[in-house]
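User: Second chain of the day. Same drill as before.
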Amino acid sequence: MSERTAATENPAGRGARAAARRMAGTHGAQLEARVEAALHAQGAGAGARAGQYLDADPVALGSLIVSVASLAWTVYQDLRTRTPSPSRPVIARRVRIELPADGRTTPEERDRIIDIVVEEVIRDAEDGEQG
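Assistant: Same format as last time:
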């Protein structure tokens, strides 16, 4: 499987891209490129370790989005072993608990980013199940 396929052609990658498109109006058009860079770094073996977006680099927000998307997808898959359709609020709450705060975003902005990314990841996962 190619790096792009492995790292980006799943609900986490597609959800991260969709979230970046939604947030580009607030955070600038470069956000989509930052998310792509973070997805590529993840696929190249840099990993999506919790907290990697803390590094002072130009793709910090993109890395945060990818970290949230990866964790949301993992949480979704875990919860699916117990219930066929995990709720978005439950997934978002788990992401908030498990992902460390970055210190660069306000709690309100962090929550908004998590909500948007979780929504997009779950939408993609559910669309994939129906299609």
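Residues 1-7, 46-58 have pLDDT under 50 and may be disordered.

User: Great, on to the next one.
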